[in-house]
Amino acid sequence: MGSVSNIALNMGLYDKLSYDSLRDFEPVGLAVSYSYTLMARKDLPFNSLKDVVAYAKANPG
Q1: Which residues, 6 or more positions from 46, have their beta carbon under 8 angstroms from its beta carbon?
Q2: What is the dihedral of CA 38, 35, 1, 31, to 10 degrees?
Q3: CA distance 49 to 8
Q4: Domain, as residue range, for 48
Q5: What is the CB-side half-sphere exposure of residue 48 using CA atoms within 13 A?
Q6: Residue 15 zone, left/alpha/beta (φ > 0; ψ -120 to 50; rest)
Q7: Whose CA is closest to 46, among 36, 55, 57, 37?
Q8: Which pairs count as long-range contacts for 57-61, CB under 8 Å and 24+ apart, including other chains?
């Protein structure tokens, strides 16, 4: 059992894996469902995800 995000990301993070992420796994069911939360320091100038995207575009890097 593993997290989809870890299995997908490992392909780009590691040169050599003992498995092929695209061929060696098959989903068999959903064990849990959860939401992601985006958090930032209170002193940063965003109040929404739209603000974060605008800030990132205006301040690349």
Answers
A1: 40, 52, 55
A2: 170
A3: 24
A4: 4-58
A5: 3
A6: alpha
A7: 55
A8: none
For the chain, 61 residues long, the average pLDDT of each consecutive 10-residue run is 75 89 83 80 90 93 85
d(CA 47, CA 39): 10
Six-digit token string for 51: 């603000």
Query: Amino acid letter at 54?
Result: A
Tokens 């989809």, residue located: 4
The structure's pTM equals 0.41
22-58 as b/e: b if 16+ CB within 10 A: eeeeeeeeeeeeeeeeeeeeeeeeeeeeeeeeeeeee
